Amino acid sequence: MAMRQTPLTCSGHTRPVVDLAFSGITPYGYFLISACKDGKPMLRQGDTGDWIGTFLGHKGAVWGATLNNEATKAATAAADFTAKVWDAVTGDEVLTLAHKHIVKSVNFTQDSSCLLTGGNDKIIRIYDLNKPEEEPQEITGHTSAIKKALWCNNDTQILSAADDKTVLLWDRNSTEVVKQLSFDMSVSSMEYIPDGEVLVITYGKTIAFYNALSLDMIKTVDAPASIHSASLHPDKDFFVAGGDDFKLYKFDYGTKEELESYKGHFGPVHCVRFSPDGELYASGSEDGTLRLWQTAVGKTYGLWKCVLPEELVSENSDTIYCTPAAPEIKA
Amino acid sequence: MNTLVSVLRLPRGPDPNGRGFDPNSPRFIAMCPTTISASSETGTDSVEIGEEQRARSALRESFLRTLIAMTNKQVQFHMYERVKVEAKFGASDIDVLNFQVSELQTPIGVQKEALLRAKHRKMLLMTVYDADDPPTELPTDD
């Protein structure tokens, strides 16, 4: 008997959620940070969606947010022309890095020693977090606002996607362009998977997979609607995508077949990411919510509870469920 | 027939009264035992930690006493756009994000009761003076 996906809705934001990121797996589980136009990025427990805290300090919409692997530090990029680094345990602001325009993207190196930023001033900056008073290293070249800048290849290279319809691969030391990808339209999102060096890029209705070192294309898949974000499962068997039609799509990575689509959000989906253990994926939407979705629907994990088949066919099956039987759980 | 996957409960939402990061959570206690991240490098000398705790308590008490002493005193806030406003200080919230004041004298009139938010205040330069004996010159934020 097929089980129907029950997404878990995380409320709290009052404006569209535009970015989200997971930490690595820590002794305390894994964590999730969400960037929101309400200016108040939030930290949540990754497997349950429980709110842990709100990073207060930005004076404008927060466009990008990230956590380091250990979830001890957070970084955010905002429309107030600053990127901020936070202590992700206490919620305290640690550093404010002034920029000359809206900052859109932030990314830590694996050892959390450096922060990469990119935004509307078209410049990629590298900050040494051990010497925050020093001027950042600047990398110029993009001719339009930068949407995303990510460390790759063991933090020796940088991938950047901009509104100039290019994705550039830079060498960190020489700050020169090593390779370039050009598209007919702006890239809407980019995800880098270090294990296997895969780059996931979305543009229009397309989800494209590239080798992150060579920028050779692996494959492309077209979705039924314009896609804003996609994420590849850690085991590389599935990928998920979401966009304009408010739905989440799940595809088989090997066969490119669309497996499932899920309704739930009340607005376009702006970001979607798999958790580090691949058991769930989180989506952020224009509707101001984050939703958590199970990869294996019906499995006991986090707040989801597996119900055994015998219990389902019992005459008193309505007493088994912990929540009232309702077609849609709204939070 | 498709059955919905059941859930134990819904994810917990934000606390409307604070910014979270519960200092009693296992992660917080393990990583910030003395609430000062720098001091955790000094090791687990319980005497030092005890002294530190006492100093922290003294500072907290002093801060709270300052807030109490400021109640009903005339204060001046330096806001954005070179605006300075005077008011009678009432109270602060727990995160020192909002101040409750009375008789707020603004460029467009006197507000009987008001809440001054942290993001609207440029600087916490509060000059507390006795309303019956104001100083002739107030310090500036230059």
Automatic annotation (TrEMBL), chain A:
Keyword terms of this UniProt record: mRNA processing, mRNA splicing, Repeat, WD repeat
SMART domains from the UniProt entry: WD40
GO terms of molecular function: RNA binding
A single GO cellular-component term on record: SMN complex
Family annotation (SUPFAM superfamilies): WD40 repeat-like
Renumbered ranges of WD repeats: 55-96, 96-137, 139-180, 262-294
Similarity section: Belongs to the WD repeat STRAP family.
Record-given protein name: Serine-threonine kinase receptor-associated protein
Organism: Hucho hucho
Automatic annotation (TrEMBL), chain B:
Gene3D superfamilies to which the protein is assigned, alphabetical: 2.30.30.100
SUZ-C domain span: 1-25
GO annotation terms (biological process): spliceosomal snRNP assembly
PANTHER family the UniProt entry points to: GEM-ASSOCIATED PROTEIN 7
Pfam short name (any one): Gemin7
Entry superkingdom: Eukaryota
Full protein name: Gem (nuclear organelle) associated protein 7
PROSITE patterns found in the cross-reference section: SUZ_C
GO CC terms, sorted: SMN-Sm protein complex
InterPro entries: SMN_gemin7, SUZ-C
Stretch forming the signal peptide: none
